[in-house]
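Hi again,

Forgot to attach this to my earlier email, sorry! This is the prediction with adenosine-5'-triphosphate bound. I've pasted everything inline since the attachment limit keeps bouncing my files.
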Amino acid sequence: MALLELQQLSHAYGGHLVVDGLSLDLAPGTIGCLLGPSGCGKTTVLRCIAGFERPDAGTIRVGEEVVSAMSTHVPPERRRIGMVFQNYSLFPHLSVAANIAFGLQALPSAERKARVHALLELVGLPSQAGRYPHELSGGQQQRVALARALGPRPRLLLLDEPFSSLDVDLRERLAAEVGAILRAEGTTAVMVTHDQHEAFAMADQVGVMHGGRIQQWDTPYNLYHRPANRFVADFIGQGAFVPGQVLAGGAIAIELGALRNAAAGSAPAWQPGDAVTVLLRPDDVVHDDASPLTAEVVAKAFRGAEFLYTLKLGSGQEVLSLVPSHHDHAPGERIGIRLDVDHVVAFPA
Ligand SMILES: Nc1ncnc2c1ncn2[C@@H]1O[C@H](COP(=O)(O)OP(=O)(O)OP(=O)(O)O)[C@@H](O)[C@H]1O
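Structure tokens for the complex follow:
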């Protein structure tokens, strides 16, 4: 049975529908993430799960308990749900150990000490117990906030943009670390973010939100390689949309050649002659000096190990190509390219 189940959740602010019939299931021990652009309603979903908002319609079940339904609203403090916020919200006048012990008052003193010690070990800060929040880095403070939230062993942990006040470099690393910590504890968690790198680094399942609904609830791999619709294809990763036409036998002809195995998860039964739009990822277009097919370099972005080239085809259509950075070509040059498409993703034109 799912540990968290949202069914047909809807919520409006002053007549403006923000969450629109949203459903999702999260298995025990899974880390789920709601990912979407600013204002898509993801924080509102989190607040409904926590109990800070009362949904207009739908039900929320945590474990065996329906915590929210038309006639039910379990108050936040009785939901046994932990929360980690963007701004750490540690008590500034309490030491790290005292911050973590705060939610553990019900435990006998020896047990409380042992739990605080175990949590400090878990988040990798055993030597910082006596320090105060202002003496810690942002990443360390967020780890203390995580330890404090995990202290009372919540049945579900909610994380609201937990890394957004940290440096970009640190975000992805901490997201992966926090994912590992939650897995070590067997915690079921839901995170909200607008940053797909964070979502991918931490979550098992990601729901891409748009217009108050989940457009696709899937693994990071499938969101990238098998996007269910144009919105997801556009929002996740980079790529270019190019026109194509379905051939007899099901292959799709695009300017760069024929794509076989056009069996993306989303592909309806195409008919020969159908006009389609094909998603080409930067790794689908490979630089190859031996290829008779060439394209003009329009722009390039240095990524360290790779260049991301923007290339112009004969028709004027632009595509992206990720190329090892020892292939250093200037804008205006023509370079050989070929297709290497594993997952053909096509949508009705
Ligand atoms: N308390 C409120 N009263 C009125 N409108 C609100 C309230 N909270 C949020 N909204 C509006 O509801 C919409 C969704 O907000 P929400 O915070 O859920 O989005 P979000 O996806 O989390 O965005 P962000 O990433 O910017 O936080 C926004 O248009 C927002 O302005």
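The radius of gyration is 24 Å. The CA atoms of residues 297 and 311 lie 5 Å apart.

That should be everything now.

G.
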